[in-house]
Automatic annotation (TrEMBL):
Keyword Oxidoreductase: no
Keywords noted in UniProt: Membrane, Transmembrane, Transmembrane helix
Domain of life: Bacteria
Protein name listed in UniProt: Bax inhibitor-1/YccA family protein
One Pfam family linked to the record: BaxI_1
Segments passing through the bilayer: 52-72, 78-102, 114-133, 139-160, 172-194, 206-229, 241-258
Family matches, as InterPro entries: BaxI_1-like
Keyword Membrane: yes
Length: 271
């Protein structure tokens, strides 16, 4: 079964079989005669963990390059709130479109991934400023720290074998994610149509429970990302696929950060 992360789910290169992503058709005798004596084509070297780490760092550097200025511009008043809000919505919409294009593309597109990181940075910076203005200072550093701790914990759990991306694990996680998405959509309709308060920001047990579910789901999706990166390295995929691995990790980590940010806001409960 494929990963539930859209960055990997439609990418056969990260399948568990080592033959995935390669054309292994046997050439005919005529084709061999034509190729005889010609120099061998230069093949892209295999993807490594260092490649994934480097490209992940590049994507996050681009994200921070747009997120940090917008965050400080909105929180210090140097940027009009309406302008900041407009940039935040633009980042969310364009980022979503670019993420879908990248995820459903059959080829690796580093340029679009970098563009996605830039627009996603606008969304992350703007939404972080919104939380800071409404729930006070200190929320963002705590969310960043929580994201790093969750990432480290999931990595240790995966490397030690405590959590493995088995078929049953993927199935249960996918069902839970669909259920969580359905609850989110129902809540959104209720807010827009009936003007009710969002259950996801409820300061009681409901809001805390939903936030904990979101953090847990996002954290567990990291296990799927680790597994498919490992399979890609094991299959000796070309170096360019490190961009796809980095993109998938960034999508999950941003999701995890936003879930932790909301959980902290709900726990603070002074909105």
């Amino acid at each position: 079964m494929r990963s539930s992360n859209p960055a990997f789910a439609r990418n056969e290169a990260f399948a568990r079989t080592g033959r995935a992503g390669f054309d292994i058709t046997t050439p005919s005798a005529d084709q061999l005669d034509q190729q005889y004596g010609l120099p061998s084509p230069v093949r892209d070297r295999a993807m490594t963990l260092e490649d994934v780490v480097t490209r992940t760092g590049i994507l996050f550097a681009v994200l921070l390059a747009t997120a940090v200025p917008l965050f400080f511009g909105m929180t210090t008043g140097a940027l009009a709130f309406g302008t900041g809000l407009l940039l935040t919505f633009a980042g969310a919409i364009v980022g979503l479109v670019l993420a879908l294009v990248v995820s459903f593309s059959k080829s690796v597109k580093p340029g679009l991934m970098l563009a996605y990181a830039a627009f996603e940075g606008l969304f992350v910076g703007g939404i972080s400023a919104f939380y800071t203005l409404n729930w006070g200072n200190g929320l963002v550093p705590q969310a960043v720290l929580g994201t790093l701790v969750a990432f480290g914990a999931m990595l240790v759990a995966y490397r030690t074998g405590v959590l493995r991306a088995t078929a049953r694990f993927r199935k249960i996680l996918m069902i839970a994610a669909i259920g969580y998405l359905a609850i989110g959509l129902i809540n959104l309709v209720a807010v827009l149509v009936f003007g009710t308060g969002s259950a996801f920001f409820d300061t009681g047990l409901l809001g805390v429970g939903l936030s904990l579910v979101g953090v847990t789901l996002a954290s567990l999706f990291l296990v799927l990302d680790f597994d498919f990166i490992e399979q890609g390295i094991r299959n000796r995929l070309p170096q360019q696929f490190a961009w796809s691995a980095a993109f998938g990790l960034m999508v999950t980590l941003v999701w995890l950060y936003l879930e932790i940010l909301r959980l902290l806001a709900v726990l603070r409960g002074n909105n």
